[in-house]
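Complex record, two chains
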Amino acid sequence: MPMSEPLLRVKNLKKFFKVRRGFPNPETVIVRALDGISFEVQRGQAFALVGESGCGKSTAGRTILRLLEPDEGSIEFDGREIVEADAREMRALRKRAQIIFQDPFSSLNPRMRVGNALAEPLLVHGLMSKKEANERICDLLEEVGLPRDAGIRFPHEFSGGQRQRLGIARALTLNPELIIADEPVSALDVSIQSQILTLLRDLQQRLNLSFIFISHDLGVVRYFCQMMAVMYLGKIIEKGPVPKIFDEPLHPYTVMLRDASPVPDPAARKSFERIEGEVPSAVNPPSGCHFHPRCPHAMDVCRKVYPDWIDVDAERSVACHLYADGRGGLPVAESAGATS
Amino acid sequence: MTETGKIEPVLDVSNLTTSFRIGGEWHPAVRGISFSLQPNETLALVGESGCGKSMTALSILGLVPKANGRVEAEHIRFQGKDLSRLPDDEMRKIRGNGISMIFQEPMTSLNPVLPIGFQVVEALRYHQKLSRGEGEKRALELLELVKIPSAKSRFKEYPHQFSGGMRQRVMIAMALACRPKVILADEPTTALDVTIQAQILSLLNELKAETDMSMIFITHNLGVVAALADRVAVMYAGDIVEIAGVNELFARPTHPYTEALMRSVPRSDRDTKTLYSIPGAVPPLTRMPQGCRFAARCELAIDVCRTQNPPLDVLGSGGAHSVRCWVRGNHDLAEMKENADV
């Protein structure tokens, strides 16, 4: 049970996009990118949003910072509702919540010396004089493992890993409490990825940062995060503590995702035979439970009714009819049997 | 060289060097690598960006741009021919016929304005001189073989109407069209979601079991290597630093780079308390160090590593595991030291 008030509480958050498509007679369709997600992030915790492309995990990250305006739902940051916050209040809140993007190249202005780019938020928020800001930037660059004088260089002079360090430094300039990290290591090589993960974990522990860590890589999530939510077509289908979800996933989709993730161990070679189908379009998701066309356990009710949240224990919940009253959940062998 | 040494390899690459001209100087991106591919074997080429793994594949197929690139080899032997000395028109008969390639990006490798079926038929008509009717019949069989649902009705659809996974299946169908002996797959699942990746990997495994083709699978993902390779060559900065059977390599990673890579990957099947980080970064092509190219990042490096590149040594008596390392190979280090001091 959470001991204190969570830093972030997201309730029934929705974001729909209108898309005009079709030729020669385009019609307007609605993509339900975020279809009512709820979760909480505790202070100092790394919370993972996991799922495949198009599940809405990046939209969630952006909507929480109101880089995209939510259509419905509430976002409470440190007890304050931010969906209704005006521009002035938002600016104050943005100091406390920052984002790291996947592609560190396209998120840095190529014509600006990185020191100036990093100092900008300090100056925009009127927190420091130019001189103080420069000093702070040098400290930050050192903190993320770059030379103190790296600020005079331009983004193209840095490698991919170094650019991601700059992205992290930028997110840290204002001493935030929450960092939303959107696939921060997926564009990086293995050896650089582990450097960045080590840096992020070190920062998390030293600065007691909270993270929303958006990723499709289960290995990275297992290393970095304490709590996780699995998303499928705009909805969270399972959430709970990371070790428990990996050891004993509840939702059949979580099982599929885990079993599909290749493990660097030839002894654990799998046949992948239970992994079927593709993620359907979010424009026209399947009726009932969105996962039923790919689910080996689909029942009649799954085709008709979207399952309610079921709290399996104090920390874990799942949206799956298998866990409704009287049904025993997934067969044990399947939940445990990743490699058998 | 391998356990199946008596059998004639399908493809034998000896001393391949691929260089690029940068600022008026030639720099080798692939540096004298040798390996062979046995019938029905999957050899994984593993390494990080810039290690030369893709260039190796392009060099085999003669696809390195001639303006700034240069391919030299003792030989690249395939079906009794030396591909490194074949004229262009002869090479064209081999590409897509005897050896075919699957690329990483299935969207950019398909022509967006031609129907899927037409693109599969094209290779068949060119190489095997089939009539349009025969070609279409065979193409449809291939699309069914790679498990494209309702292949017949989708035959005339365009690439944008297919998902990423389905496009990659089409690419595989095209690669298989002329029953090649060797498939070069360059990161074919990297752009795909994990569940789709799993399906493509199991499809490739099935196809390999059903046909007698061999495959060179290029990837940076050690999980994918473990899922499908028979043998693995680890590349770093243009060198093959270690080559071994897949079980052997994962059980006894011997080159410090291989070992470090394995300790750097966070695993989804077990808890990782601390993740190992290889310090530094791969040196740029224009500033490659003397000696072992990994030395600057290596915890075990000794003096000789910084001056001389180690040879690829065979470990043990089986001959199946080789490593390029002064410290971990079969070297008398005392003697090495003396030589280095002189």
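Note: Chain B has eleven helices and 13 strands.
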